[in-house]
């Protein structure tokens, strides 16, 4: 998505990943992208091969001519983990892409031409507002090496990314053009900078590199990234891809992906389910991302260069989404990575001028997206599950620091009033509920570490959800600073009713730390089950859906919104009523209706892996309703069988006997031959390995 | 000088140092400034203490109220090397400033007030065009430490400077305001950023820090700089000023200055001459400046961080000016610093994507100001004088590389045509003359290193000045690519006549490598002496002076322009005629008329020390007419006596017997008792120490 200065085109959601299946044109291949986030950024360093007259405008030239884009069609497109291939029909160029961890590897196959161009577009951005470039800098170091950097002010406010790009063939000639309103260039004006001048700098630059090719000649480009410096990018390039064998890198990358994806070997009822399952597995591996050079150096929040000691540094923590199921999933299949992520969060805390754990960690920036301080949940979940070797005392201290930053998003008021007053802060109920849950997570850490005082303080705070429940109407409801509930209130409306991206009907059920108490508060098990029934069946008015970017009819069942996160635990709440079979029904229904093996298979954006992590867990038959506790709620597995290769060398096999489309009910569950009671599974039962067998049935059985 | 976005106010010259004596107001104290350069930049991090209502606009508020400036008067102002004091009358604040090498130290004495503000203005710039800020970033790390950086696109195109500022007293409260047209700030908008929010970022920011004070209470501020990072700035701060004793730092800095200034102990005819001499000595120490952190890290031209191995890294090389006399002066009194500078130039070459030595090295940038590649002169001068331990082979290679960058400023044409064709390049004659001289310097290096091939090539190139001499009119004259001289030509005009900041009359005499041949070419000694006589006495029309920023009547004697550099050697050229006494006359005349012990004592800007170095040399009685040769031309000393403390432990005493205002003629010169013949002094004669005695007289004596 190409955005010119100052315009807002409202297409954030459609284009946040930098790829829109509906499109018929390609304007190039960028080197950083977010996958399934609710906001947009990145899109650094767009590379585009063309043939013929040089055109430097992506979509349309000033005179109305065709931009440098190419038409393409999906039937000449191929994508698999670590590989992408497409025919650029406008130029008769075959483009293939693969990558190592820090280096993109391009392979372009050309026809015979003496007018081949590879365009490096430093203007291109993925962002929903303004041209976010702050500065760009490019050096043509020699006849095949180009280095540079870009600084942007997008979703990440002060963000730098450096590159080193090397061509497999010497550049014949090159040049660049600036797209700035005011181009005053000091005494550089003495040079003819547009042709073969090796030093380019400005706000908006497009560079081009010219080549001659024979028929079927390939030109390869290796494109290394670094958060530290161009020197760092060059070291990454040398370390990761010291050769020009595109297929070798493709094979190595494929092998790495297969290793990760095969951590769970699933047998499914159909090929479609298999595609769904491994697509979900793939998505759960796309972020958080490694954010350090091969030598362990990385740019920190303070914009200084740090060295990761005893960990690998990660970024892209979309924590409001991912603390729910993605990080708990990591605790089972990627504990070492989750350990690195927690250490990265602690480093983030230490580098933060606020002394806060990340809310949304974003390329050496905090972008403050969404609410809560859910890093505490991620840490508590790992801590109670004994995952990792991070410093637990330091983690507790960082969590307590975070939970006491009074100027953070209504937190001071939350501490003073014991709820977030609606007249002082937007999304007041959501914040109250989530702060209370996060505080419970901190209490769990303190408990485990024997810190009675902190445990008591935060257990007390974890009860503040009580203060926004209105027993008269039976809903969580925004409360004013004066102590009265807000008069004007619509529990079905998702706008301005004290909730963010949700309403009292669904988001109001967010008390994962005290589910039994919440149910009692809401009138007991029967009445609560009826609330859930209504939630899943109610006919909601169109007005509640219109103009909501993140919620569409596709992602909704009644007033349950699967396309967004705050309700992801809700289908499992029937377990706490007398109707666990309804959890089984709803979970299977959601898996069937909200995930499909098609290009538009998800009912909302993937939210950095959370939608997919929900699917992986639910497919296996359980779900972490309360991260920070060592228990999972049982659901209804979709797999026939799954072998989970655990980090401790053990293997856990999950079997669903009599699995079928109809047999969605769970008659019994046995762990290593012993039938378990209740609807919970412990982390220990999973991590010990062995066999969990679900006996499936076409009718609800008593548990 | 405060410049708003996009305006050009034409006051570059007046305000390039950030201080204008004529002004009656002060808007604060910045931490980087250039001294006496012909262009402007820097002015980073303006600090201003105020009392009363908070005002964040420097000159005038939007409503027309008074800005935060203060009135001041020169009679309550005090300045000495390493110390500045002024009363800020508008606020009744006494401001004192001192510094170590990398840390500024402020001391503000306040009256009793609960409304004391210290403003950190990140918008303020010294630059002649546009608002040059690219990005600014500030963190309030704790109750007394603030860090941050600024990136600018001024004379240096891609320039970053980092700081760490610490207050002697905890900040009571603080805040900031942005001055950007579009302030979209992502999810930072959730915060009240204007009050006590510790993280600030944007293009244009002014921050303020509030304090309460008692009567006569001092608040100190230490302000450390780094080219590397805020972490680097903080280390510089800790290493250089680990205490709060302002007087101690002042005393230490004063001692360092005295050490440098007393390398020449001069006795003069008058107090005024003494002030002139030591003012000049002071100026010659203001730049080039140290450009590395205490740990030796510095930002290179490639914007990567480098470590200086075996040298200290310097920047601010205004080489078109300073190769003439400043670096030769360093070879006598600061050989170790000049050695570091040459090593810095070699590092610059290695970091340069052009593989070029610096033209104008400017804070990890090349600003390309003026012409030639005079780093070769600096290196050759050190090499033939056996100064330093830099790698001479590497220095020769770097010089040869530099002299072969075809796209540099007409250099390709110079190589092809053996002169710079006037229809292809501006300032064609100046470039031809200076390239030829620089090439001669390279030949001198090659000769010393026994590289016959390079010597021959560059000796050949050093003769290209012949190709722009028109024997018909007897002047250097612009020649076209076709081989004919340009028809329309005015040898007196300094605009568009093939010369830069000069004309054929003065700049045309620039063949320092072949003075005898030039004189022959211009008609022999008598005719050349007449040319010089005319040059110094001609009445030039006002039209030739109007609209020339760098040349005013004050700096002109006839058509000789002392206020600018290309003619600085000219007064000494009489030595090559039959009238060396005229050199003596002119040199004394220039010293008397162009330098004065007053605030406007110079006849032009100091050009980074060159004007002053000319004065120091001339005061001592000799001048390096041809840097790159080990000889100095004799003039007429102004000192009565001077002791030069040489780096080798020896001392050279210069005595001017019978020195007086009238006795400007040199009857004889003896070195260690032996009267020398001719008008040259060798570097060896200086560096051996001992005594050089000038016998002065009131009438020209035969030499």
Task: Characterize the structure shown.
The structure is a homodimer of 703-residue chains. Chain A has 703 residues and is an alpha+beta fold. Among the domains of chain A are: 10-259, Beta-galactosidase, Chain A, domain 5 (Distorted Sandwich); 292-375, alpha-1,2-mannosidase (Glutathione S-transferase Yfyf (Class Pi), Chain A, domain 2, Up-down Bundle). Helices cover 26% and strands 23% of the residues of chain A. The first copy, chain A, contains 17 helices and 34 strands. In chain A, the strands form ten sheets. In chain A, strands 4-5-6-7-15-11-10-9-13 form a nine-stranded antiparallel sheet. Chain A has a six-stranded mixed sheet with strand order 16-29-30-34-31-32. In chain A, a hairpin with a 3-residue loop joins β6 and β7 (103-109). In chain A, α11 (428-448) runs antiparallel to α12. The longest helix of chain A has 21 residues, at 428-448. Chain A is globular, with a radius of gyration of 26 Å. The model of chain A is unreliable at 1-6 (pLDDT under 50).
